[in-house]
Design a protein that fits this description.
Elements (H helix, E strand, L loop, with lengths): L2 E9 L3 H12 L4 E4 L13 E2 L1 H11 L1 H9 L4 E4 L1 E5 L5 E5 L13 E4 L1 H13 L4 E4 L4 E7 L2 E6 L5 E9 L6 H5 L10 E10 L10 E4 L8 E6 L4 E9 H6 L4 H11 L1 H6 L4 E2 L4 E6 L8 E2 L2 E3 L15 H21 L4 H28 L3 H12 L2 H7 L6 H7 L2 H8 L6
Parallel strand pairs: 1-2, 1-11, 2-8, 5-13, 11-19
Antiparallel strand pairs: 3-7, 4-7, 5-6, 9-10, 10-11, 12-15, 12-16, 12-17, 13-14, 14-15, 18-19
Helix pairs in contact: 1-4, 1-9, 2-3, 2-9, 9-10, 10-13
The chain binds flavin-adenine dinucleotide.
């Protein structure tokens, strides 16, 4: 049995693993990247590639990747903002940019099926000689030894001895469960289902992402995201604890929302369901976890880094991959892969995202109240600058922090917005 020796090995080539490999490549460090799937492959997701994903790819990985993605108009749809609707049909349409020209500006965000987006990133990976990529290779065995980890794939197809294992194998990470002590906590986990439709009508002309907060479904939401070729990604998500408390069947809930809400019924009148309705979990960042240990780091969903309010996880998957790559460089320089040095990765991640996770979690709890939610929408709709800033409530730490301060509300209510 031939053993490959590589200092750095990444398991999983979704956004987290691909970003880690691409960042290492840009830093001049070789690595092995392994995925059990053959790409393109599907991933249950809303397919929203937010402006934050675009920003992080540009700033942390490589702006040229964003340019190539923006040019790939056959696989993605440009998306210029979002709309949020409360339980009383009170709705906010908010562009990400104050002024924009769709003919000349690069779109701040996109919608793209993960089948395409993840494959796009994997093609980027394949264009880099420092990354040795193995697809169709499932890692099934992990053994800790003095040099690091010896990992083995199904049928002994590939055996790797590595000093640093970067674990990017997603929400159901076996490694995170077995060695990272990460367990599913229903308070910090979202359940969701999604489906693809064709022929849904009534989209915003600038392809806004649509979020609907429904009275019987708070603090969860229903979404409709437009896709290329007249298709749409449609789904619902809610905290898992609520699913068990209320004994919800999410597939039924999705069908009921579409069939019994008059405005959705009208928009889906000529629509056709073109996929299965698929469910999948979202590990949220609201609970602080240990993200590293001797000779390993967890990134992306394996590290539970999804925003507790919005369910957005691709941006943090890419960011954590980039930070993990920088941490790997430090380890290589010092020839030290111990838990002590790797703790620096946890500290950086929570320094960058910890506050935001806390605030999103608090807001997620407040959003259980239709009164709170509708009042918030009403106040914001009366205040244009505030409305624009609210576009970032799903992404912006600064605004979330303000939403939690009584003094800010006082100023807003007196129409002296403090944004
Ligand atoms: C219904 C739903 C809607 C969502 N909507 C959005 C959205 O609109 N926008 C957004 O930003 N986020 C969204 N998310 C979250 C987003 O999907 C995740 O945060 C993101 O996919 C995390 O990327 P990742 O690379 O960590 O994991 P993944 O994308 O899951 O990739 C993990 C990879 O590891 C591979 N793998 C697993 N086990 C092994 C193994 N043993 N050996 C080798 N390879 C292995 C898999 O094949 C896979 O390719 C949504 C999630 C769900 C469930």
């Amino acid at each position: 049995m031939k053993i490959e020796h590589y200092p750095i090995t990444i398991i999983g080539a979704g956004p987290a693993g691909a970003a880690t490999a691409l960042k290492l490549d840009r830093l001049g460090i070789p690595c092995i990247l392994v995925d059990k799937a053959t790409f393109p492959r599907d991933k249950v997701c809303g397919d929203g590639i937010s402006h934050r994903v675009v920003d992080i790819l540009k700033r942390w990985i490589d702006p040229a990747i964003v340019e190539r993605f923006a040019a790939a108009q056959n696989i993605q749809l440009d998306s210029w903002g979002l709309l949020v609707e409360g339980t009383k049909n009170n709705r906010l349409d908010i562009g990400y940019l104050t002024y924009y020209n769709k003919q000349t500006d690069i779109s701040p965000g996109f919608v793209c099926k993960r089948w395409e987006f993840d494959n796009f990133l994997v093609q980027e990976v394949k264009n880099n000689s420092l990354i040795k990529f193995y697809d169709n290779t499932e890692i099934v065995d992990f053994q800790k030894n003095t040099e690091g980890w010896l990992i083995n794939s199904k049928n002994n197809k590939l055996v790797i001895q590595t000093q640093l294992l970067i674990v990017a194998d997603g929400a159901q990470s076996r490694f995170a469960r077995l060695f990272g002590g990460i367990t599913l906590d229903p308070k910090h986990y979202m359940a969701s289902v999604k489906a693809y439709y064709k022929g849904v009508s009534g989209f915003h002309k600038d392809n806004f992402l649509e979020f609907y907060f429904l009275k019987n479904f708070l603090p969860g939401y229903f979404w409709i995201f437009p896709l290329p070729n007249g298709e749409a990604n449609v789904g619902i998500a809610i905290v898992s604890e609520e699913v068990s408390k209320r004994k919800l069947n999410l597939k039924k809930c999705l069908a009921e929302v579409i069939e019994t809400t008059p405005k959705f019924k009208a928009r889906f009148e000529n629509a056709e369901l073109i996929s299965e309705v698929q469910g999948f979990g979202l590990p949220l960042g609201s609970k602080k976890r240990q993200l590293s240990g001797d000779n390993y780091l967890l990134v992306g969903d394996a590290a539970s880094l999804i925003d507790p309010l919005t369910g957005e996880g691709i941006a943090n998957a890419i960011l954590s991959g980039a930070v993990a790559a920088e941490q790997a460089v430090q380890c290589l320089k010092q020839n030290d892969f111990s838990a002590t040095i790797l703790r620096g990765y946890d500290e950086r991640i929570y320094r960058m995202r910890g506050q935001e996770f806390k605030m999103s979690y608090r807001l997620q709890k407040w959003f259980k109240s239709p009164l709170f939610f509708n009042t918030l929408i009403w106040i914001i709709s009366k205040n244009k600058p505030l409305a624009r800033t609210f576009a970032y409530v799903f992404n912006d730490t600064h605004l979330k922090k303000q939403l939690l301060q009584p003094s800010w509300w006082w100023k807003v209510l007196r129409n002296k917005h403090a944004v």
